[in-house]
Automatic annotation (TrEMBL), chain A:
InterPro entries: AAA+_ATPase, ABC1_TM_dom, ABC1_TM_sf, ABC_transporter-like_ATP-bd, ABC_transporter-like_CS, P-loop_NTPase, Type_1_exporter
GO annotation, cellular component aspect: plasma membrane
ABC transmembrane type-1 domain residues: 17-299
Parts of the chain that traverse the membrane: 21-41, 53-74, 134-152, 158-182, 242-264, 276-297
Domain of life of the native organism: Bacteria
Compartment list: Cell membrane
Identification of the protein by name: ABC transporter
Domain ABC transporter span(s) in chain numbering: 332-568
UniProt keyword list: ATP-binding, Cell membrane, Membrane, Nucleotide-binding, Transmembrane, Transmembrane helix, Transport
Automatic annotation (TrEMBL), chain B:
Protein name: ABC transporter
Topology within the bilayer: Multi-pass membrane protein
SUPFAM superfamilies: ABC transporter transmembrane region, P-loop containing nucleoside triphosphate hydrolases
Primary location: membrane
Subcellular location: Cell membrane
Species: Faecalibacterium hattorii
Length: 583, 640
């Protein structure tokens, strides 16, 4: 996993190598300082040699200045490496997501992908920076300080070794079991916040049922139990700092006692003893830093895992070896198609579907929720692959086409559709980047969008907010239809795309289709019978199977489901205020 | 769950980041500490003592070095047979001080866990309880993500502040003061030298911070843009695929990402520099002191001894560390205060007011056929109306609702409902029709007093609804909202939400009435199936059926139904329709109607346009009138 992440360093590899290098050098300078100080005391002060004092004093300056320079460089390169890695990771994720198929996208929610590309990347960036700056520096600090100390006195250095072992043992025994506990506690914390979220969005329900007290009590109890869990987990951590102090103080005492003996028998000087005291903090701080880095790494491990998941995901629509790059015509053929959303497992959504559509034909599709209408049409532009059987467009299996070519010729208006922030023209030009303004206006007229666009003060330059939040549902649908028309496709698929458009406008759009793009194969999914009744043929889907296929009149005579739907709608259940909304 | 998370840039908290603007930080801090002290004053006093003790023990560690060399080792070097007795005694004494210091440090950490977590628990429950009391208006005006962020981000930064920043600040301050005092006592000359270096240190870190602050703001801006772009494009990723726009959006993303990479690099670089600069200036300060001290010791100025210099150097080191900590902690405290400001702002929002005094009680008829109050659930409800003269009258709850000349606006400047007059007789069904934004939902929100009217009167069984206690008013109304919200819990619990004391049998009966029983039985665990994430595992239609069952179990005399406009398929819709019809039977119902079938059998249809009732009457009457309703009903004919 780490290897995978590090491989995205790219041009920042140099910075990533230089950072620990400079940090390590800085650490060595840091460790040299107490020894030089010892020289000041031993050879300068004790002997009253002013020259030595000045000599070693200047050396101290020099070393500190060098350490400063190294530290600044390390900091700079650490920033470069970590933010560079973060940028590259975002880039790589974004690029890989562009290769995702629909089923890959379904696997991650939108919010999930956004979190992975933002919060998770930030976590990894911070952890990486920490690792870069600490993970080499701290051990170097530790080892070099030990070496320097043992150069002064090997046996006194044993004091440090004992202290280090003590601290490592204590910290490990505190931290390691605590991780699991915190994991659970934070999960409960998330649940608590989820219940707040729930209360905010459902506040009208809470208030209409007068459940404020009920919710308060529930929440207070949850808070209380969370409090207990947090206290239990954190009180373990309260031993960390005292353990550190025990080590420092223990070293102080031991060094004082043994140091006094060593000074007396002349094996070390007072200056050297002072240097050893200086190393206590050096060594134990390095150890503390390491444990902090360890905590950060383990905290960001989950983020790293989530990032790698996105990077490792490969499209489940394999590219053909010799892709076909032209679509002959808009004829469509389903041959014993079975489809599942999860490959190899679960219930088939579509079961043994076989039918053909002639080029230029208009096919209506009708069926209840869950009858797999959308699934059926999504196989045509190869948004998903069938489990068994084949789908052919223009006489060629969709799996043999170059995907871009296929999708250019099979234009689909999705049920859950989206406009992007930009002008209306920008949005229309998603269909064809090079389309002239006249061309855009022409398709807008076909989709009956021109009438409302012209009423906007900025007309075709009207700014559409993110997700198209400033146009009504019906307007949005008409814009997305226009956008799809601009592609001049051989096959046009409308997946319940006029549900928010009033019936009169709906009829006008269909009339335009008939007259203006007669050669295009049109597939129209709808809830309303009126939207499909003038189609050449109508397909009735039920539970992933074809229940009927024929003209409106034929189905009205022979198909019970069709009759049922027809009757319920003509008895008056049209969406009847919608028309008003569109005016 | 789209949360508008507070965008926080990468980088260590508090280091080099710009300080947010906080008005009156002193007052905020006082208020937070007030919250803490209210429950944890004794704890805090003990913690303070512990901090002082452990800080003093720490200073003792440095001071001991002076006496170690000067008072013990140096004298012993002059003895022929060194006497370790005094050293042993001193070490034992110091050892005891250390032990106390360690104990104090542990006690401090341990108690602070309770103080911090306890305060957070209290704040959370206060926040939540207060939030539940806020008027609907508050939730209309504040993005839900922002409210959520108070619970997550702001409470989190407060935790950071309580558990780390403040104790560290206090301990740093104590260390600084005691070390400073020791330094002055030891050698004022060296103290001056040290202070000069400290000033230099503070100056440098301030300079760097202001540089990095500039870049952090830029980073924040770029991060916001990248987040926005990702959110929009991921939402539309399927459209991107359908239009084979992958390369184009990637190019757009790269442009923004490169900008962010650049500003993040600058911001982090400056933030990273602060630590080495202060640390090395600290070392230089150490060297300067050593030089000056050595010179003084050699020259014998001010009685400076070797031991003094050594001890002073140790003090110098323990002085520099808390100084750089103070500026870092101060930064993160300011940040936490910005969060605290948002927490208190929510807590200070005025609660929903309620001057109502008429209450809803269970009632029965006594032998004289008078309505009297009873504690049993009789199925008969009465309004208990206390009067000024001390008498109390009881009024049977029947479900008669009238609007007279009602005006309303969400904001005073803009009236959205004009002169609404309406009569809903007990058991009648009133349908509202009209285009989106005509004010249908608004009218129903006035009946349960989600909003208060600006003019006119709404009477419920002849009582002005502003006199009725809100809780009782709402208890008498059953509401099925257009947007269904379910809670985490089982299906049964969700139905029981309508009436908490309902038995399982009553809940199942309600589900049957609402036509929900069929699909519930087919769920994996039937009525015990867990619903999570607002019932995401159910279809739109099923969630609506559950909402109807939930209203049904409450068994209210008056119903407000907002029919869903979302496209559920015809067969499920028929189920929902039958469920609603079953629920409405025998109750006064206000229905925001989208289906002709609902409208047709209504007793009265009110056609709304731009906040006014423009037509009113039964279906046949309105058709005969050939007005707006006729146009709407005949639909497509109207346009041709």
């Amino acid at each position: 996993m780490i290897k995978k992440l590090v491989s995205h360093l790219g041009e920042y590899k140099r910075a990533a190598i230089l950072t620990p290098l400079f940090s390590a050098l800085e650490a060595i300078m840091d460790v040299l300082l107490p020894t030089i100080m010892a020289f000041i005391i031993d050879q300068g002060i004790e002997k009253g040699d002013m020259n030595a004092i000045i000599k070693y004093g200047l050396l101290t300056f020099l070393v500190a200045a060098l350490a400063l320079l190294l530290g600044v460089l390390a900091g700079k390169f650490a920033a470069e490496a970590s933010t560079g890695l973060a940028g590259n990771l975002r880039d790589a994720m974004y690029e890989n997501i562009q290769h995702y198929s629909f089923s890959n996208i379904d696997k991650y929610s939108t919010a999930g992908l956004v979190t992975r590309m933002t919060t998770d990347v930030t976590n990894v960036q911070n952890a990486f920076q920490m690792i870069e700056r600490m993970c080499v520096r701290a051990p170097v600090h530790l080892v070099f300080a030990l070496i320097m100390a043992s150069a002064i006195s090997g046996s006194l250095t044993m004091v440090f070794v004992v202290a280090i072992l003590f601290l490592v043992a204590v910290l490990a025994s505190i931290m390691i079991p605590t991780f699991g506990i915190f994991d659970r506690v934070f999960k409960n914390y998330d649940n608590l916040n989820a219940s707040v979220q729930e209360n905010i969005s459902a506040i009208r329900v809470v208030k209409s049922f007068v459940r404020e007290h009920f919710e308060n009590e529930k929440y207070t109890n949850a808070c209380e139990s969370l409090y207990k869990q947090f206290v239990r987990a954190e009180s373990r951590l309260s031993f960390n700092n005292p353990a550190m102090l025990v080590s420092v103080y223990g070293c102080n005492l031991a060094l004082s006692w043994f140091g006094a003996h060593y000074v007396l028998n002349g094996s070390i000087t007072t200056g050297q003893l002072n240097a050893l005291f200086g190393y206590i903090m050096n060594i134990l701080m390095a150890l503390m830093m390491l444990s902090m880095a360890f905590v950060m790494i383990s905290m960001s491990a989950a983020s790293a895992r989530r990032i790698v998941e996105v990077l490792d995901e490969t499209t489940d629509l394999p590219a053909p070896k010799a892709p076909v790059s032209t679509v002959a015509d808009g004829g469509i053929e389903f041959d014993h198609v079975t489809f599942k959303y999860k490959h190899g497992s679960g219930q088939p959504v579509l079961n043994d579907i076989t039918f053909t559509i002639k080029p230029g034909e208009t096919l209506g599709i009708i069926g209840g929720t869950g009858s797999a209408k959308s699934s059926l049409v999504q196989l045509i532009p190869r948004l998903y692959d069938p489990e068994t059987g084949s789908v052919k467009v223009g006489g060629v299996d969709v799996r043999d086409y170059n995907l871009d070519v296929l999708r250019r010729e099979v234009s689909m208006v999705l049920q859950k559709n989206v406009l992007f922030s930009g002008t209306i023209l920008d949005n229309l030009r998603w269909g064809d980047e090079s389309a002239s303004e006249e061309e855009c206006i022409r398709v807008a007229k076909l989709a009956c969008a021109d009438e409302f666009i012209e009423r906007f003060p900025d007309k075709y330059n009207t700014w559409i907010e993110q997700g198209g939040s400033n146009v009504s549902g019906g307007q949005k649908q008409r814009l997305t239809i226009a956008r799809a028309l601009l592609r001049k496709p051989k096959v046009l698929i409308l997946d319940d795309s006029t549900s928010a458009v009033d019936t009169a406008t709906d009829a006008k759009i269909r009339k335009a289709f008939r007259e203006e793009i007669p050669g295009t194969t049109k597939i129209i999914i709808a809830q309303r019978i009126s939207s499909v009744q003038d189609a050449d043929r109508i397909l009735v889907l039920d539970n992933g199977q074809i229940n009927g296929l024929g003209t409106h009149e034929e189905l009205l005579k022979s198909n019970t489901i069709y009759q049922e739907v027809y009757n319920s709608q003509t008895q008056g259940s049209g969406d009847f205020d919608k028309q008003g909304g569109e005016q | 769950m789209a949360q508008a998370k507070e965008v926080r840039g990468p980088g260590p908290r508090g280091a080099g980041q710009p300080r947010p603007k906080v008005e009156n930080p002193g007052l905020l801090l006082k208020r937070i500490m007030g919250e803490v002290f209210q429950h944890y004053l004794p704890h805090c006093i003990i913690v303070l003592i512990c901090i002082v003790v452990s800080a003093l023990a720490n200073v003792q560690a440095s001071l001991f070095l002076k006496s170690l060399i000067d008072d013990y080792i140096v004298p012993m070097t002059q003895q022929a047979a060194p006497d370790f007795g005094p050293l042993t005694a001193a070490l034992i004494r110091v050892g005891c001080i250390y032990a106390v210091g360690v104990l104090a440090a542990w006690l401090n950490a341990r108690i602070m866990v309770n103080v911090t977590q306890g305060t957070l628990r209290n704040l959370r429950t206060q926040l939540f309880t207060h939030m539940e009391s806020l008027p609907i208006k508050y939730f209309d005006q504040h993005p839900h993500g922002d409210i959520m962020s108070v619970y997550t981000n702001d409470v989190d930064t407060l935790r950071q502040m309580l558990s780390q920043s403040i104790p560290q600040l206090v301990s740093s301050a104590i260390t600084i003061v005691s070390v400073f005092a020791s330094m002055v006592m030891m050698s004022w000359q060296l103290t001056v030298v040290t202070m000069c270096m400290v000033a230099l240190m503070l100056f440098c870190s301030k300079k760097i911070t202001s540089m990095s602050g500039k870049y952090f703001i830029a980073q924040q801006r770029d991060l916001g843009k990248v987040n926005g772009y990702i959110e929009e494009m991921m939402e539309g990723q399927k459209v991107v695929k359908v239009f084979t726009h992958e390369q184009k959006t990637l190019a757009g993303f790269r442009e923004l990402n490169d900008k962010l990479k650049d500003s993040a690099k600058q911001a982090n670089a400056y933030a990273n520099i602060i630590m080495p600069v202060t640390a090395q200036l600290g070392n230089i300060s150490y060297a300067v002191c050593a030089l000056a001290g050595a010179a003084m010791a050699v020259g014998g100025i001010g009685g400076t001894t070797l031991g003094t210099v050594m001890a002073f150097l140790a003090l110098n080191k323990s002085f520099n560390m808390p100084i750089s900590q103070v500026s870092m902690q101060a930064n993160s405290i300011i940040m936490a205060l910005a969060g605290a400001e948002r927490i208190f702002k929510l807590m200070d929002e005025p609660s929903e007011t309620d001057e109502g005094y008429v209450t809803l009680v269970n009632a029965k008829y006594d032998k004289d056929d008078n309505l009297v109050e009873t504690s049993d659930r009789t199925g008969i409800w009465a309004w208990k109306h206390p009067h000024h003269d001390g008498t109390t009258t009881y009024h049977k709850l029947e479900g008669d609702i009238t609007f007279t000349g009602v005006d309303f606006g969400y904001v005073p400047e803009k009236t959205v409902l004009h002169d609404i007059n309406l009569y809903g007789r007990p058991g009648q069904k009133i349908a509202f029709v009209g285009s989106t934004g005509a004010g249908k939902t608004t009218i129903t929100n006035l009946i349960n007093r989600f909003y208060d009217i600006s003019d006119g009167k709404i009477r419920y069984d002849g009582i002005n609804i502003s006199k009725i206690k809100k809780d009782d008013l709402r208890r008498s109304l059953g509401i099925v909202l257009q947007e269904t919200h379910l809670f985490t819990g089982t299906v049964m619990e969700n139905i029981r939400y309508g009436r908490l004391e309902a038995t399982d049998e009553e809940c199942i009966a309600a589900a049957r009435l609402a036509n929900a029983d069929g699909f519930i039985k087919r769920l994996p665990d039937g009525y015990n199936t867990m619903l999570t994430n607002d019932g995401a595992n159910l279809s739109q239609g099923q969630r609506q059926l559950l909402a109807i069952a939930r209203a049904a179990v409450a068994d209210p005399p008056v119903l407000i139904l907002d029919e869903a406009t979302s496209s559920i398929d015809t067969r499920t819709e028929a189920l929902v329709q039958r469920g609603m019809d079953g629920l409405m039977y025998g109750r006064t119902s206000f229905v925001i109607a989208h289906r002709l079938s609902t409208v047709r059998n209504a007793d009265c249809i009110a056609v709304l346009e731009q906040g006014r009732i423009i037509e009113r009457g039964s279906h046949d009457e309105l058709i005969a009138k050939k007005g707006k309703y006729y146009q709407l009903y005949t639909g497509n004919l109207a346009e041709n």
